[in-house]
Design brief:
Blueprint (H helix, E strand, L loop, with lengths): L3 E9 L3 E6 L2 E7 L1 H6 L7 E10 L4 E6 L2 H11 L6 H10 L2 H9 L3 H5 L6 H15 L17 H10 L4 H11 L6 H11 L1
Parallel strand pairs: 3-5
Antiparallel strand pairs: 1-2, 1-4, 2-3, 4-5
Helix pairs in contact: 2-3, 4-6, 7-8, 7-9, 8-9
């Protein structure tokens, strides 16, 4: 298993990065929370913790800025009805800390507010993961880092996550402000969608 990558950032989008390690480029799917913590410019050296998902038709590498997010991802995909892409979508809509607090406080509405998560799945997440959330430690640092992005990147990210482009654009227009980062913009739009 590939547990982490340490290399040069070649490409960065809100949904994936390409990292070159010793001449090999790795395509890694990421959450918006991880995107917000990666250096702004390409060509920088970065380290991502990874999780390899092997299926009959694909080997997909998922990347995380810290071990807590990777651990939360693994907890989420252990729940029946939540696959890797849904896990990444959940970690894009909410931080690992927010998901853990929602589970610990039995807040079904926060979890079912994420696209693709219905009432029964949200309830299953809480039932299956409540005791595990007591073991996770979180830092107090702010999950989002401000950087220069725009409406186009937010729309591209939402489209890549499977949202209808027209609906995504309407949601972005409702929540956009002048000094808002792409991560905050996408997070707010996800709450509407």
């Amino acid at each position: 298993m590939i547990t982490h990558l340490n290399g040069t950032l070649i490409e960065k989008t809100p949904t994936h990065v390409v990292i070159e390690c010793s001449g090999v480029g790795y395509f890694v799917k990421i959450s918006l929370n991880t995107f917000s913590k990666i250096p702004i410019s390409e060509g920088k050296n970065i380290k991502l913790f990874t999780q390899l998902q092997v299926r009959e038709d694909a080997h997909t590498l998922y990347g995380f800025h810290d071990l807590v997010e990777r651990e939360m991802f693994n907890h989420l995909i252990s729940v029946s009805g939540i696959g890797a892409n849904t896990g990444i979508l959940m970690l894009s809509a909410l931080s690992a800390e927010e998901i853990a607090h929602a589970i610990a406080s039995d807040d079904v509405n926060i979890i079912k507010g994420i696209k693709g998560i219905g009432l029964k799945t949200a309830q299953r997440v809480i039932v299956d993961l409540k005791t595990k959330m007591e073991k996770i430690e979180f830092s107090s640092e702010n999950i989002f880092v401000s950087n220069n992005t725009n409406k186009f990147e937010a729309l591209t990210a939402l489209s890549a996550l499977g949202f209808d482009k027209k609906n995504a654009e309407q949601a972005i227009n409702k929540v956009i402000t002048d000094d808002q980062s792409v991560e905050d913009l996408i997070k707010e739009a996800l709450r509407i969608l």
